[in-house]
Amino acid sequence: MKSFDVIVIGGGPGGYVAAIRAAQLGLKPCVVERDKLGGICLNWGCIPTKALLKSSEVYHMIKSSEKYGITISGEIKLNFKEVISRSREVSDQLSKGIKSLMNKYKIEVIKGHGKLLGNGKISVNGEEISGKNIVLASGARPRILPNIPIDNKFVWDYKDAMVPEEMPKKLMIIGAGAIGIEYGSFYNDIGCNVTVVEAGDRILMSEDEEISKLAHKEFEKNGITIITSAKLDKFTTAGGKVSIEVNGKPMEFDRIISATGVIPNTDNLGLENTRIKLTQSGHIITNEWMESNETGIYAIGDITQPPFLAHKASHEAVVAIEKIANYPTHPISKDTIPGCIYSRPQIASVGLSESKAIAAGHEINVGRFPFIGNGKAIAIGEKNGLIKTIFDRKTGEILGVHMIGSEVTEMIGAYLVAKSGELTDLDIVRTIFPHPTLSEMLHESALQSMGVAIHI
């Protein structure tokens, strides 16, 4: 029987990072993965969707070229199959890159489904292996609505939506979270008639309310139809079309994308052979070091509690492995985990929303700076957006940062470093930002929280 210091079940952004960090610290790891290395994120989520969104961004820019003084004669054609093909090529390249990293660190990869047997043993393809420690990183899968089942033909999950044979002309997306909004933005920008429906009373429920409202307006301005507080009924398929009632109104579409969240892949893992405890939603309960109730078994990523983000999984992987190796490490604070949505416009945030900061008992100063007040934003034709910063009035602590507009998913990094370093509003104000850049708005927003913004 093969024996390892660490067995990692799942080769996604949590699993493969755990294995690499284990090897770096002198441990002997292995990865058990039943599909491609890189998991959902690299093969079907974070990476390929960004490739798709880049194609739609370029297409939109070309169609908008005249506002930059450039006239393009002739018909502008979008090759849908090539757009899809490029996305798959990007994922394949990166998946091969992960495989190279496994070889570099001499990490054994066992293809198959891993199941816990108890006492540090795992069954893979009928054979047993043992590990002093086990890291569960099996990820999650799409949640399926009982009245609108995913059939991979008329109703797509995120995988189907990424590799369709042809572009639908009329598309409904159920769910206005990050996944639904990104797909809505992509398909809208390449010419599809898109309707997004959301059961909640607003889109992007996890975002600051003000940013959510601004996003709603911008997406509708871009041509997306948005229906909130939506109730769906009478779902049928016939004649190559999908019929469904939305708030009692009959509507017809070519296809539906179901983007109503994910559920953890904790079934068929052999958890019944352990003392591992689950939440009511089926997620594994861990402590701050990602340890489960079973000694020697850790859990990271989407099988633990939210947020369900690749970068969270990767960071949890490092914490778990460093704990295993008795290497100095640190627990993760949820207030420092950023969220990014790569739609047009982009959205990025970290920390508390304005309402949650108030509910937590903070006296706050809120700074707002619009893109229209920034020279670089106007120069590049991206004048719609907002930077919103929330500080504790007494201490100057950065409580939350919420952004919407061009490249905010890149700009959020500056405030992440500041927040992790426990910098204050004064530290931001006293920082010299380069001109002309979009990042100057981070400075101006902090200034505005004190009532002394220069350009507004």
Outline, from the CA principal axes? globular
What is the CATH fold-level name of the largest domain?
A: FAD/NAD(P)-binding domain
Helix percentage: 25-40%
What is the CA-atom radius of gyration, in angstroms?
23 Å
Mean pLDDT: 96
Count of individual domains:
3
What's the architecture of the largest domain, going by CATH? 3-Layer(bba) Sandwich
Report the span from N to C terminus.
69 Å
Number of strands: 22
Quick one: biggest sheet? 7 strands, mixed
Q: What is the level 1 CATH name of the largest domain?
A: Alpha Beta
Number of helices: 13
| The named CATH superfamily of the largest domain | FAD/NAD(P)-binding domain
Measured by DSSP, the beta-strand proportion falls in 15-25%
Low-confidence stretches: none
User: Which structural category fits the helices and strands?
Assistant: alpha/beta
Q: What's the helix and strand layout?
A:
Elements: E1 2-9, H1 15-24, E2 29-33, H2 39-44, H3 46-63, H4 80-104, E3 108-111, E4 114-118, E5 121-124, E6 127-136, E7 140-142, E8 155-156, H5 158-162, E9 170-174, H6 178-189, E10 193-197, H7 209-221, E11 225-227, E12 232-238, E13 241-246, E14 249-253, E15 255-258, E16 262-264, E17 297-299, H8 310-324, E18 339-341, E19 346-351, H9 354-359, E20 364-370, H10 375-379, E21 386-392, E22 398-405, H11 408-420, H12 425-429, H13 440-449
Parallel strand pairs: 1-2, 1-6, 2-3, 6-17, 8-15, 9-10, 9-15, 10-11
Antiparallel strand pairs: 4-5, 5-6, 7-16, 12-13, 13-14, 18-19, 19-22, 20-21, 21-22
Helix pairs in contact: 1-8, 3-4, 3-6
